[in-house]
Amino acid sequence: MGASPTKVRHDLLSMTPEKLRLSLGEHFLKRGQPDYRIGQVESWLYDGLANDFTEMTDLPQRERRGLQDAFEIDQPFAKLLQVSQDGTAKHLWLLKDGELIESVLIPADRRLTLCISSQVGCAMGCTFCATGWGGFKRQLTAGEIVGQYRASQRWARENEYGPITNIVFMGMGEPLANRRSLPTSLTTLNQGYKVGARRITISTVGFIPGIVALAKRPEQFGLALSLHSPLPELRSQLIPLELRYPLPEVLQAVEDFKKDNGRRVTLEYTMIEGVNDGLDLIDPLGEIALQLHAFVNLIPFNPIPQNEWTASKRARIQEFADRLKKKGVSVAVRETRGRDIDAACGQLKAHAFAQLEKTNS
Ligand code: SAH
Ligand code: SF4
């Protein structure tokens, strides 16, 4: 006889609340424990944000050990924290297999927005994005997605940042391409951690099957489309996925999403000087926005090490905003946050390894 096979401990964070109840129900039934034990564990996980079964102090020692043998809480470990001059806080998380991901907390007025990652790296290869240049490593598990929220919420509570009010899937990765874990994590954030669907936004570069799947869900999650150019040819130079999912089809999918979901969609437009900020682009951009009744976010490009591009001039961004407004488009210029710590859009993972080496030396 060889050594006994290693027992698989199922990750509680990767389960939807429904699955969690079932698994815990079976577990406690086998152990002759009352049903209310399920509620105790749920409360420790969803309200107490417990990282470890030893924290669950209202359970008998024996039961804490029993849980430990059967399950795990696969919580990412905070490897590095950087706080920007503007209060933006970026966490670098170490995953069980040694991979690293980042998430960012952005305080503004009475809001605290958490920007989370959905993949290690990204396969989409957008030319203006540091994550895209790094390539794709692997999908995140639902637990690793939810784990960024739990750990950030704990940190925010302990550091007087207040509770997280909004979650945006705008960190590393294309969320809709994580077809297994994204749906589970959305359900769990919404039903387990009670983050309202309307406070969760998924940003996509135009992955049509994912848009279609999201539209079928009953909850009103928000959708943001990374547009960056109203013209397919220019767009394909920035976003290689344009060649697979051409803009007219993407826009149709977004239109259908809006009909099913009932919510206004956001168009994101990163403004790069001399690349996609020509005045001739305002008309076609305005047309798309009006057609979709979409909200347009103009985002100054954040420099990345991989190319020489710079942000459009302030005056040009303002001109885009003013002329779009005149056409009746709802538009905002998104202020750049956390640039000094490479926490701004598209900069994630830009220097993560360099920083790690610095902190380790
Ligand atoms: N993959 C998804 C979500 C992550 S990217 C997506 O692309 O939508 C989040 C946002 O940051 C997207 O709108 C993306 O286009 C934008 N972005 C990427 N690189 C950027 C950069 N260097 N400067 C400004 N915005 C950038
Ligand atoms: Fe991936 Fe979004 Fe970056 Fe494109 S912009 S490479 S889709 S993370």
Structural write-up:
α7 (208-215) links the parallel β10 and β11 (222-226). The model is unreliable at 350-361 (pLDDT under 50). 44% of the residues are buried. The strands form 3 sheets. The chain has a 10-stranded mixed beta sheet, sandwiched between helices. Strands 1-2 form a two-stranded parallel sheet. The protein has 12 helices and 14 strands. The protein has helices at residues 17-30, 36-47, 61-70, 130-134, 142-158, 181-192, 208-215, 232-238, 247-261, 282-292, 314-326, 352-360; strands spanning 10-11, 71-72, 77-83, 89-94, 100-108, 111-115, 119-121, 136-139, 166-169, 200-204, 222-226, 266-271, 295-300, 330-333. The protein has 2 domains: 10-72, DNA polymerase, domain 1 (Orthogonal Bundle), CATH 1.10.150.530; 77-360, Aldolase class I (TIM Barrel, Alpha-Beta Barrel). It has 361 residues and is an alpha/beta fold. α1 (17-30) crosses α2 (36-47) and α7 (208-215) packs parallel to α9. Bound molecules: S-adenosyl-L-homocysteine and iron/sulfur cluster.
In short:
With 361 residues, the chain is α/β, with parallel strands linked by helices. The protein is built from 12 helices and 14 strands. It has a 10-stranded mixed β-sheet with strand order 3-4-5-6-9-10-11-12-13-14, with helices on both faces. A two-stranded parallel ribbon has the order 1-2.
